[in-house]
Amino acid sequence: MSVIPHLINGELVTENGRAVDVFNPSTGQAIHKLPLASRETIQHAIDAAKAAFPAWRNTPPAKRAQVMFRFKQLLEQNEARISQLISEEHGKTLEDAAGELKRGIENVEFACAAPEILKGEYSRNVGPNIDAWSDFQPLGVVAGITPFNFPAMVPLWMYPLAIVCGNCFILKPSERDPSSTLLIAQLLLEAGLPKGVLSVVHGDKTAVDALIDAPEVKALSFVGSTPIAEYIYAEGTKRGKRVQALGGAKNHAVLMPDADLDNAVSALMGAAYGSCGERCMAISVAVCVGDQVADALVAKLVPQIKALKIGAGTSCGLDMGPLVTGQARDKVSGYVEDGVAAGATLVVDGRGLSVAGHEEGFFLGGCLFDNVTPDMRIYKEEIFGPVLCVVRVNSLEEAMQLINDHEYGNGTCIFTRDGEAARLFCDEIEVGMVGVNVPLPVPVAYHSFGGWKRSLFGDLHAYGPDGVRFYTRRKAITQRWPQRASHEASQFAFPSL
Ligand code: NAD
To answer: Fewer CB within 10 A of the terminal residue: the chain, N end or C end?
Structure first.
């Protein structure tokens, strides 16, 4: 079993101490050992970042962008290798892995615009012979903590932008599927990034707490589950850090009576069961307006769920792979049991699925519940698995109330042909990312990503324009150059025009 190293100050380093196994979820076998960083190892990465910062901060943005252009090229050249690593450790299909990488590369493309996005703002003649401008300066050493479900894309939401803004970055990826994350970081160094500007340290709570405690770390970006997001936001802000912490989700799709049902069903299949439901933007609740829509939806979904092609993620042409760990599979199965006990109708039961040749893999088939009600745990909590819940309501207003009352507000969508209904939905729904006939409305890299309510703690969303604001601080400079030397009398009144 190979040991996955940290990447600190441009070097691959191993550490003797606590370690965990990394599994291939399709076989159920442990394939790597992963060291869990001690506080000393985290400090080593911080020291390297601190040492690299002065030179990197003064590197022209256009030069920083040139590194990102080369990085993009390397990512594209290595797509197959990266997708294979993602699939081997996460379990998602190769096509899905390639898709997440492409969405990650979008963020590198956005970062290539560094000279444009860091231009600042300028006003001439704000007073007599006085000009003013706002400069966007880096924060220094910043850190990111990322989840297992997008080992390539979510880190790429963070460090390309943080780095082109002039910061040095420490990444603490998920301990479940770190190999693709590490390879991608190595490609950035190969693209010409000076050592120390990006380090990758593996670890658990000890590593995260060391990053929270370190006074040198000025900002933390977190993506993961809500309890940890809330913890990192509270502890980080208490220490005066800038924190954006993105959490969990329960994403509803509303089906109106006039929806194009066949297309809505196709969209729901991908959005609910793609990546085994392990996406923070996965649709996990279908809210049907009227029994007629609900009956028709369930009738169309059942054969498609039963026909899902499920197998080892690294095989081609599949719809779904396994869940990430045996623990995750058992947790999702537990929710299915809970839903049955609470009185929901289990229309398709994916439990007990065995994949020939991969009997030890962490597989679970697609599950569908009908007649789910808002008091049930399967409705209230994030399941993070291939389980879709159908809730029946009588009106769009009732559907919207349901969504607005939910503690999460990450993504949502409406399927309709009615522009008035869609507009009302977009205006009034209390969710950060909204789709109209688009099931996974993940914003492109030049917008920003973030939920509302308990799906995001902090003021700024991830990547795009909000990301630039998050990773820079504004400095406003007011400058006067008198045209000729002349004595100016003191002014005791507050300066004004
Ligand atoms: P997680 O919260 O278990 O782990 C996320 C990160 O936090 C990992 O790096 C992990 O090592 C670290 N961590 C775990 N326990 C910790 C602790 N006690 N103290 C400090 N750090 C700790 O999440 P996960 O299971 O890896 O990912 C799935 C979750 O992430 C889901 O809830 C999903 O909705 C969410 N997610 C949200 C978004 C979003 O944009 N809102 C995107 C992707 C995933």
So the answer is: C
Task: Verify that 269 and 166 share a domain, yes or no.
Answer: no
Domain that includes residue 411, residue range: 251-436
Q: Are 161 and 190 part of one and the same domain? A: yes
pLDDT at 375: 98
List pLDDT tens digits, range 401-428.
999 999 999 999 999 999 999 999 999 9
Using a 6 Å cutoff on CB, does residue 250 contact ligand 1?
no
Atom of ligand 1 nearest to the CA of 146: 9
pTM: 0.96
Q: How far is CA 407 from CA 183, 235, 249, 279, 369, in A?
A: 36, 22, 9, 18, 21
Catalytic residue list contains 112 = no
- Judge if the beta carbon of residue 177 lies within 6 A of ligand 1: no
225 half-sphere exposure, CB direction, 13 A CA radius: 9
* pLDDT tens-digit readout, 461-472: 999 999 999 999
Q: Which of 34, 42, 149, 201 to mutate to test the pocket of ligand 1 (most atoms within 8 A of CB)?
A: 149
**Quick check: CB of 148 below 6 Å from ligand 1?**
yes
Does the C-beta of 181 come closer than 6 Å to ligand 1?
no
Instruction: Report CA(226)–ligand 1 centroid distance (Å).
Output: 8
How many distinct structural domains can be found in the chain?
Answer: 2
The domain spanning residue 170 has which CATH number? Answer: 3.40.605.10
Taking 50 as the pLDDT cut, the residues of the chain under it are none
